[in-house]
């Protein structure tokens, strides 16, 4: 047993010597399907899902990966879904837990929310304001939570901002560039993801970082998010390290 542990630690050290992605984007697909598949309540499945999220943040810190983004909730979530109330209760609980986390404080992890979160129920909005405020001065690691997010809407909103600048005479239409678009995205302050880990059974990006993912390597796990673990995370990074 001791020899196996030593080998595991050695592999991790060797692994860290290889180039790592600077920004990893991860989808959280399949939480409700996982609950149905395993005969578990939505409440318990969301608890497991957010434990997986916290575990992944710990792996981020251990591997010294600057940025991780999670696709937590797509825009237009079905309010008639049976899981709807459980989901928002769980998200609020997770956000409050992260805001009070000593691990977040000790490692100076800044939490940002991307998307139209301000349109969500008050308990979510209040929890978001709390975590954004409590981590605003941190700059060692960055965790983005995409909540009520849509990749196409992100680009449309960027176009609206650019149009307003043109209308106000602050921008020449002839000078609009790819950089101009990037500067007006929700993710304007962050590097595009080097690696996208797509969970669930659908082989599609679901519009996750639609503008920023043009050169992103995509790894499909074929696993529902609650089954995502450190082994799968490392496998995705190893696949990234293989290059083209």
Describe the structure.
With 244 residues, the chain is α/β, with parallel strands linked by helices. It has a single domain, classed as Undecaprenyl pyrophosphate synthetase (3-Layer(aba) Sandwich), CATH 3.40.1180. 47% of the residues lie in helices and 15% in strands. It is built from nine helices and six strands. A six-stranded parallel beta sheet has the order 3-4-2-1-5-6, with helices on both faces. Strand 3, helix 6 and strand 4 form a beta-alpha-beta unit. The radius of gyration is 19 Å and the shape is globular. The two termini are 37 Å apart. The N terminus is likely disordered.
State the helicity in percent bands: 40-55%
Total number of helical segments? 9
Q: Per CATH, which architecture? A: 3-Layer(aba) Sandwich
The percentage of residues in β strands lies in 5-15%
Main sheet strand line-up: 3-4-2-1-5-6
Count of distinct strands: 6
CATH homologous superfamily grouping? Decaprenyl diphosphate synthase-like
In terms of per-residue confidence, which ranges show pLDDT below 50 for 5 or more consecutive residues? 1-10
CA radius of gyration? 19 Å
**Which structural category do the helix and sheet elements fall into?**
alpha/beta
Distance between the termini: 37 Å
The level-1 CATH class: Alpha Beta
Look at the structure and give the mean pLDDT: 89
Number of domains: 1
Order of helices and strands: HEHHEHHEHEHHEEH
3D shape: globular
Main sheet, how many strands, which sense, barrel?
6 strands, parallel
What do we call the CATH topology? Undecaprenyl pyrophosphate synthetase
């Amino acid at each position: 047993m001791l020899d196996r542990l030593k080998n595991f630690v050695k592999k991790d050290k060797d692994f860290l010597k290889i180039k790592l992605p600077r920004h990893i984007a991860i989808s959280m697909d399949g939480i409700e399907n996982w609950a149905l598949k395993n005969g578990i309540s939505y409440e318990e499945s969301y608890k497991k899902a957010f434990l997986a999220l916290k575990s992944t943040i710990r792996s981020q810190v251990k591997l010294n990966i600057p940025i991780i983004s999670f696709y937590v909730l797509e825009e237009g979530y079905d309010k008639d879904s049976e899981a709807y109330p459980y989901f928002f209760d769980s998200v609020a609980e997770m956000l409050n837990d992260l805001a009070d986390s000593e691990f977040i404080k000790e490692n100076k992890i800044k939490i940002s929310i991307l998307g139209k979160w301000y349109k969500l129920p008050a308990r979510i909005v209040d929890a978001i304001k709390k975590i954004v405020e409590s981590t605003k001065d941190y700059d060692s690691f960055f965790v983005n939570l995409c909540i009520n997010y849509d990749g196409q809407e992100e680009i449309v909103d960027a176009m609206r901002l650019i149009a307003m600048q043109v209308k106000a005479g602050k921008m020449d239409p002839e000078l609009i560039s790819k950089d101009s678009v990037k500067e007006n995205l929700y993710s304007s302050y962050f590097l595009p993801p080097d690696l996208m880990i797509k969970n669930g059974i659908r082989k599609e990006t679901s519009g996750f970082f639609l503008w920023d993912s043009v050169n992103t390597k995509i790894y499909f796990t074929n696993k529902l998010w609650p089954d995502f673990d450190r082994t799968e995370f490392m496998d995705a990074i190893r696949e990234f390290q293989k290059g083209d």
